[in-house]
Design goal:
With about 525 residues, the protein is of the alpha/beta class. The protein contains 15 helices and 24 strands. The strands form 6 sheets. Strands 2-1-10-9-11-12-13-14-15 form a 9-stranded mixed sheet. A 4-stranded parallel sheet has the order 4-3-5-6. Strands 16-17-18-19 form a 4-stranded antiparallel sheet.
Length: about 525
């Protein structure tokens, strides 16, 4: 890239394939060519610059998914601004924290929420507020209507920030993770090659675009390769099943695949033209992977990444895709497993997952004091995940370090117990947590969701697990719930479960099978 901007690479596609359909907006019955994206993003770049935004400024965006919102992302890239997408579900207090921390010069929000967010905007000192609705309405597009259709890309360095994501904040206040133009460019280039993307591909896009998965993985792959996107505002099983015969690639969170399998009519007919299904953002249960392959003939490709590192490992496009594994490091990426003293561990030993590569961010926004805690002296990032490597380099995750259960002085990794639970008849999905216990320190506890119509007997589940796992790994209790609490990307919120059942063992009561709500 001549000046380091990731947009320069994207612009080559926008120009080369100007007349080709880039996005089919299924919900609104519209189509956009790559040339349309080029012109619309140029108009929006002019709007931002004329409003007073200058190189390096943050542009916070809290809007529903739309093609206009994607063009706003491109506009920020070409204007040298830092795109900061926020989950539309965040309430005013959450938005206030992020605006106050990021100090954006521009905030783009839904027209219906301007009054609700006014106090947060004022406290953060945001200079410019523009609006954008799901149907393209609002002051942003009104201003863009008369703006020029060309814009000279602002020169930036590869290490200049292109975007910033706030982490989910499961261990405290959300932290900003800035990503450079080089981070985005290196990762998108590697993924296009690793997953075989070409302009002949049709990507079914039902993911949100305020998250790395939908924006920096799915959309960037399509924009860089020239693939067409079938664009849905959100996952809708009926629409996805109707569109799949036209698609060659689908990216989704595990919940997407579970919901598809819930429909008895889903199978090989809908997936006949798809060459690749990819799953991420949350662990894919081995049983779901197996059920999907049996129903469709497709082996879902699971990969591993996070906001701070984008995508880092993946099962191969050509080769063995192993259920339960997130594959090997992508080219240029490194992984190692270490103990508490940062001593590298041999294959098959569980430890902390450390990563290094051109896709890894340089540190959290305005938190320099954390650098020594988050990175080793030689540049390895501590992901907070626990896992191990196989003899031939496949990475297996066993849970977040904070989710490790220490019971009676012994370590229990939730993923191992969850896999055993999910393999039992009648259990659709599970979450294993540690809860305070007067004797053990922490008690292994399972929260399970039954298959439709199934009745879960706590005693039978515990007995079955005793035949499969060492006694200290077997849950002391099995709580049956209708559904597990999840965030918008399908990750189970174990902190919520720990808080909800924190006093379960206060009296060390005998197990009683009963349904509770989570």
């Amino acid at each position: 890239m001549p000046d380091g901007s990731f947009f320069v690479s994207v612009a080559r596609t926008l120009t080369r394939l100007a007349s080709k359909t880039a996005i089919e907006d299924v919900d609104r019955g519209r189509s956009f060519s790559f040339g349309d994206l080029d012109r619309q993003s140029a108009r929006l770049a002019h709007v931002l610059v004329r409003a007073g935004a200058s190189k390096g400024d943050r542009v916070a965006v809290q809007v529903e998914k739309s093609v206009e919102a994607l063009c706003l992302y491109l506009a920020c890239l070409r204007a040298g601004l830092v795109f900061l997408p926020l989950n539309p579900a965040y309430r005013a207090g959450e938005v206030a924290h992020m605006l106050g921390n990021a100090e954006p010069s521009v905030f783009v929000c839904d027209p219906a929420r301007t009054a609700e967010l006014a106090e947060a905007v004022e406290k953060a000192g945001v200079r410019i507020v523009l609006t954008l609705g799901a149907a393209g309405e609002g002051t942003l597009m009104e201003a863009a209507a008369a703006a020029p259709e060309s814009f000279a890309t602002v020169a930036v360095g590869p290490d200049d920030y292109a975007a910033m994501l706030y982490t989910s904040g499961t261990t405290g206040r959300p932290k900003g993770a800035p990503l450079s133009h080089a981070n985005l460019a290196s990762n998108a280039t590697v993924l296009v090659e690793a997953w075989g993307f070409t302009e002949a591909d049709v990507l079914l896009h039902a993911l949100p675009i305020y998250h790395a998965h939908g924006l920096f993985v799915a959309a960037n792959c399509a924009l860089l390769s020239g693939a067409t996107m079938l664009w849905l505002a959100r996952f809708d099983r009926a629409k996805v099943m109707a569109l799949l015969p036209r698609a060659t690639v689908m990216m989704g969170v595990p919940t997407f695949y579970v919901r598809l399998l819930d429909d008895p009519s889903f199978g090989r007919e809908q997936t006949r033209n798809v060459r690749l299904f990819i799953s991420g953002s949350a662990p894919l249960a081995v049983e779901v992977w197996k059920a999907f392959r049996e129903r469709t003939g497709h082996a879902i490709l699971e990969r591993y990444g996070m906001s701070e590192i984008l995508m880092h490992t993946g099962n191969p496009l050509h080769g063995e895709r192993r259920p339960g594994s997130v594959g090997r490091p992508f080219p240029g990426c490194e992984v190692k497993i270490v103990d508490e003293s940062d001593r590298e561990l041999p294959p098959l030993e569980v430890g902390q997952v450390l990563v290094r590569g051109p896709n890894v961010f340089r540190g959290y926004w305005r938190m320099p004091e954390r650098h020594a805690e988050d990175f080793t002296a030689d540049g390895w990032f501590r992901t907070g995940d626990m896992g191990y490597l196989s003899e031939d380099g496949y990475l297996y995750l066993v849970g977040r370090a904070k989710d490790l259960v220490i019971t009676g002085g012994l370590n229990v990794y939730p993923a191992e117990v969850e896999n055993a639970l999910d393999a039992l008849p009648g259990i659709r999905e599970s979450a294993v947590i540690g809860l305070p216990h007067p004797d053990y320190g922490e008690a292994v506890t399972a929260v399970v969701v039954p298959e439709p119509g199934a009745v879960i007997d706590e005693g039978q589940v515990i007995a079955a697990l005793k035949e499969r796992l060492a006694g200290f790994k077997v849950p002391k209790r099995v709580i049956v719930v209708d559904e597990l609490p999840r965030n918008s990307m399908g990750k189970v919120q174990k902190r919520d479960l720990r808080e909800r059942y924190a006093r379960l063992y206060d009296n060390a009561a005998e197990p009683t099978a009963q349904r509770r709500s989570a």
